[in-house]
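[job 4417] fold queue: 2 targets
>>> target A
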Amino acid sequence: MTTISLATGQRSLGDPDISYPLWPPLTRGCPRTSSDTMSYPLEIDYDYARVTSDFITGQGRPRSGLDRWAPLLPPLAAPGLGEGGTPLIAIGDGVYVKDESRNPTWSHKDRLNRCTVSAAVAIGAPGVVVASSGNHGASAAAYAARAGLRCVVLGSPELPPAVASFLSAYGAVVLPVETAHRWPLTERIAEEFGFHPVSNLTPFHTGHAFGPEGYKTVAYEIAADIVDPGAVFLPTGYGELLFGIAKGFTELHRLGLVSRVPRLFSCEPAAGGPLASALRQGLPATEVAVGDTEAYGIACPVNSYRGVRAITVSEGRALTVDDAAMHRAQAELAGQGLWVELSAAAGLAGLRTLPDDEPIEGPVVCVTTSSGFKDTRVGDHRLAPVDPSWENVRARLRAEGIRS
């Protein structure tokens, strides 16, 4: 049984005939196909001929964490925190929720950062630097701490309280700065201090080549639980999760372990929607103005070519959902005992707003990406003391529809 990484190199998404060695990780996308006006990401290639037929069942490999899927991941040089293995919860009518809030820092970003921080460890970097005001920064800080590395997080001045608390707990150096300064400072910190950048450095998002590989494990876990879903609906910002899940199912199909690649539906805030815009125009990437939305975690002005590839390969669709639809989905999930961040409800919102004339064959999975604790308004809901007399309590309960 192979338990080590079968990764062989980095391959350009701009031109699959262009490849690079696995080391060092290229953090600015493909240098040969990218330009000042377009950025093409890289992906990791593997020796697929050495993947055994029991890859999904994983006999002889760890049963939890990303280590279970080590053959089709970059080398996992950083210690894990038990990321992955999140539950798939049925909510009725053939719909399942893949609840990524169960990860160590309560978001899907833990799968990505196990891989990116592993790259930092493997090349001997003294720390990592990340531009993020949300889940990515909190997760990077946790995995850096676990690996014994320093972490610098360039966040926004409007950093949500829960995220600020996360970062402080992990000992990260947090520098709230205006958005325009975050990426240039990320690059300067990487150059001067040797810190490894684990977030984006390019105009049209390329991110870290190792990162989306961690997201493939979502597809592996879904396949292990229900084998052949008909569709997967995903909250979508820059499209790294979308691409990772598409690649994961594509790999399993290539290996003959699933019968099809499910249709993937990207679900972006209607206040922006750069991926939907790019697909409408037949472009690899585009930039849009972002209006007001509470879904701050996925409110992106640009898309990555990764998302275009994922929707095309899976014959899926790019959807946009407004805040009202996300609030309804968030409430529906809460009614099932699942409290998620508003951005994380975008996948279910996309499913619920899908036209009736677009049927889906087979089970549907909606991925929820993070905990409700990450929302910007957490802590604002204050409760006034209640008169404890039985007459008052009984009246309050009856007003809420509770009857004896």
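>>> target B
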Amino acid sequence: MTWLDLPADTGFGLTNLPYGIFSSGAADLPRTGVAIGDHVLDLAALTGDPVHATGSLNAFMAQGPESWAALRAQLTAWLTDPAHQERVTGHLLPRAGVTMRLPIEVADYVDFYSSQDHAENLGRMFRPGSPALTPNWKHLPIGYHGRAGTVQVSGTPVTRPHGQRKAPDDVAPTFGPSRRLDIEAEVGFVVGVPSALGTAVTVRDFPSYVFGVCLVNDWSARDLQAWEYVPLGPFLGKSFLTSVSPWVVPLAALATARVAAPARDVALLPYLEDAGEPWGLDLSLEVRLNGAVVSRPPFGRMYWTAAQQLAHMTVNGASLRTGDLFASGTVSGPEPDQRGSLIELSWNGAEPLKLPDGSTRSFLENGDQVTITAFAPAADGTRISFGEVTGRVVGK
């Protein structure tokens, strides 16, 4: 129990304690905070530790799991023992009154493609008459390197990207704004501890390297991507903006949410075998378009787990850096209202999505706002909130 008066089912209770970077005024320096109820606990001021005054979580994350666990235990003690109430209260700020910043300095960014439901949906759209999954899909977590510099915090405007587009009936490509701007509801994983070049990270070692989890919207220009991605993969259609939530939920908060991955019908190579290390996560996502719920994707169905993604990402000897971000890929379920992208929700425009105001959408229009939220089960029977990642489309 905490001496704080927390809102019922806040999502930001003692079982969560997510980290973020905030400032509380125009001249205020960004620093580390912890969300608790409707407040932010100013760690830099409370602890006096310069690691929390850097304007990024990177320096603290680089200290590793022992430091992560020690601070989490200290936070729990501060917020449960009334002896600390007077000291701590002076460093609690209303969450509604602070400005949230990008929580990490992003070193590298990798996006995966790990939902079988999503992959099969796109396969049926674009390869009718052929197997929905490519031959390699159940053998390895497919991914690609994104652009770290365009990873931005929730609330950053989504400027409609420009590039080359070529519709099937066009003789030649044209240049202009994307006409098929889309979302991708994803879950991101933040690396805290670096690894040496030439050293692979095993599935078992996942919690020794990964600090926490956030929400991701990996915006996608489907028309730009369709023209450019053969044979090397996504480029301008994906690199213009990736939005992340401001709060990073520690991996330690998600022990109750761990579940086994779906049953696999293709044998895994040994470095991907995870039978004894289940790192599926029972997260419930919700996607809102202009305030209306359009999808509730279930993360627990993801075929490839984050531990397997990390193992595959490093099996060739690629090194990790503090601040690396890797994302799950679009989260989709088997039902139409569980699809995590508009290209699926509208079936590539053939079945436009109907909104409560009477309008329809196949892809995003200028002025549209998308918000993704998520919850996980907590050990005390409450829920763990991941906050939200949101963005509004602006024209150019």
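[job 4417] complete. Note on B: The first strand starts at residue 19 and ends at 23.
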